[in-house]
Amino acid sequence: MTTGLSPEDTTAAIAALGTLIRGHRLRIGLTQRELADLSTISVRAIRDLEKGKAQRPRTDTLRLIADGLRLGPRARTALEEAGRRGHRNGTGRHRPAERTAPPAPLHPLVERRAEAAVLTEELRSGAERLVTLVGLSGVGKTRLALETAAQLHDAGFTVLWHTAPGAVADCLPGDDDAGTALAADCADYLRGDGCADDLPPSPVAGPQDRGPLLVLDGVDTADLVFPRLARLQREYPGLRLLLTAAEPWNVPGERLFLVSPLDAPDPAAGIRPDAPAVRLFLGRLRRVRPDLVPDERDLADIAWVCHRLDGHPLALAAAASWLTVCDLRTLRGIVESDPAALLDPIADGRSGPGLQDRVTKALAALPAGHRQLIGGLCAAGAREFELQDVLRLTGESLPHCGRVIRDLLISGVVRSSSDGGRSAFRVLCVVRAALSAAVPAPSAAA
């Protein structure tokens, strides 16, 4: 009796090993180069293993890779067994055992249900096949994408989720290594990376109108190759693509969806504890100060802070974190005098770049004329501005100024203002704070 694997089984086993290695690598956030440095295995060898091209991986090679991945005993045993015989539960290179689900969010959804409902229906019905969520970093694009993906998964869609390298992963990683690896392969293919010329095989066996949904979170749209999308859609009938990005892809068929900060009404018109920004702040407050039960004065301070920070979720979370070392009245005073000091949370920053760095990067990506306009609007000192102000400051034509305001809205550095019941806009406080922090203070001699 022969105990060897057939050629087909051998191919499936090697492919399953590559999927397992890639899944572990992506789970801990390593690139192939970083894993190569940690394991002393060449980048090419790791790439070949992950692509299923290495037919006979050595035991020492697998041991070094396991060391580089810092695998525990059980995961190490599974990797070694996959190297010998393939996954017990694997049936092929990329095909997940079940319909894959999106990652689990870290925070509850606040006031985005109407937006999620619109996105879900557009993607479910096929009215839109390519949607890009844009807005300033930290505004909640990932959380909205997670909610939309969860609703589509409940409706029967396979969800493939990929967080771009370097992006802040604002969710718990999924537990489906095959689905994670397949999503990464799709992202590589759309970026045209290296050996990603071959189309990844479809994981979906079901009605064409039920998926898959491919989510690329934090993607740089400038890296995507549009002609490859059509080829991927031919391989994945019914494919929907949902992007979260700093800038639009600007390709045919793209549905641009602007994610704005939460509503934070002016407290001068009355305190609204049910306002979305206030609700988010109260939720954060309970996490850092569960002993504090806000009274009317506290609610007034909270409403003012939320309005001053324009309802920007990450700015509100950062400000709330400071309540571990100061009270609400002191926090309001800091926001009023020096909001730049509160743009980063009081924690150790392990969650990624601070808000000030993110806003500075967003400003640097704008054309020079747009940055000059933002500087002029901030220097003017007015809380809000209108189209006429842009006409006056730039001296350009009406169509040009209209396009500039649209660009600034899409970038997220300004938001619409409805406080006065007119078509007005305002530069976000976090943007003003980042600009003021970037201006060097005058020297003592000066």
Automatic annotation (TrEMBL):
Ranges of biased composition (kind: Basic residues): 85-96
InterPro entries (UniProt xref): Cro/C1-type_HTH, Lambda_DNA-bd_dom_sf, P-loop_NTPase
Segments for region (Disordered): 75-105
SMART domains membership: HTH_XRE
MF annotations from Gene Ontology: DNA binding
Protein origin, superkingdom: Bacteria
Residues of the HTH cro/C1-type domain: 21-69
Annotated Pfam families: HTH_3 (PF01381)
Listed CDD domains: HTH_XRE
PROSITE patterns hit by this protein: HTH_CROC1
PANTHER family listed in its UniProt record: HTH-TYPE TRANSCRIPTIONAL REGULATOR RV0890C-RELATED, REGULATOR-RELATED
Protein name: XRE family transcriptional regulator
Originating species: Streptomyces genisteinicus
Upper taxonomic lineage: Bacteria, Bacillati, Actinomycetota, Actinomycetes, Kitasatosporales
